[in-house]
Amino acid sequence: MTKIHTVLQGKGGVGKSAIASVLAQYIKTKGGEPTCICTDPVNATFAGYKALNVHRVEIMEGDEINPRKFDSMVELAAGSTSDVIIDNGASSFVPLAHYLISNEVPSMLKDMGHELVIHTVITGGQALMDTVSGFAQLATQFPAEALFVVWLNPYFGPIEHEGRGFEQMKAYRDNKGRVSALIQMPFFKPELHGHDFSQMLQARLTFDEAIAAEGVQLMAKQRLTAVRRKLFEQLDGATVL
Known about the structure:
Layout: E1 2-7, H1 16-29, E2 35-38, E3 55-56, E4 60-61, E5 64-65, H2 70-78, E6 84-87, H3 93-102, H4 105-111, E7 114-123, H5 128-141, E8 147-153, E9 160-161, E10 164-165, H6 170-175, E11 179-184, H7 193-202, H8 207-212, H9 218-236
């Protein structure tokens, strides 16, 4: 069964494109050739990964998002014989979510032999409650055909509120049955692993490209290799992948 992975979260700058790129690279290591799609009308970060051959779907008409332009995204995804990765921007979060739900896309894809997997991210720091709210909104509005993977990203701070971690929060407890996997992204020290990973993301490079790049020091390559291993080990445990 072909899986269509869609990264959705209403808060910007929380790592959606990074997650999309990691997913695509992980699937390639398993022998897949994922179809990668970027619908972000403002910051088309995912489309910047040349090694991933990302298709950019234009959803703007003048200064407004035209929901009908998502039709071409669905055509491309539904016609793919390999897994699909869709990265979506914060500005189009509400229009895309509404489009998928109101057009009954999850059930249509299921009837066609596909599975829709929604990946959403929870961060620490100031965006914590916004991202938790975004997850709860998605989990309560999408039909049962859609599966969920929640990524916990501690880059901006610990993921806890009033002494409770995400798994103790009401939003998760109320929607636990919808979540197929929790991916705990490792915390990387900013001056070491975090710096190298951040530099790689800013350059829109895959792990393979960054590790093989000329001029990259031996220990930086070693740290990137460790980051990749820790992320991929988490994905190995996610049966939905």
